[in-house]
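2024-03-11 09:14:02 DEBUG pipeline.ingest accepted 1 chain
2024-03-11 09:14:02 DEBUG pipeline.ingest length=75
2024-03-11 09:14:03 DEBUG pipeline.predict start
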Amino acid sequence: MPFTLAISKARTPLTKNPWLIAFILIFLAVWANSFIGTTDLNNWLLENTLVFLFLFFMIYSYRKHQMSDLSYLLI
């Protein structure tokens, strides 16, 4: 599976892109670990408000504004 860049013409769908699946799983593992290790749920929710908003935007705009694998890695 080639690693796509901004100048790549072809884009791979999410279900067939192992890079994006790996990025999502690593992010969810780290995020879940920070949730499990928290002692103050309100503080965790406050700190992750921007994460929730950013994830909503990324999911909502995925089909229209699909980025390269490198862009997802750098985010």
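2024-03-11 09:14:41 DEBUG pipeline.report The chain has four helices and no strands.
2024-03-11 09:14:41 DEBUG pipeline.predict end
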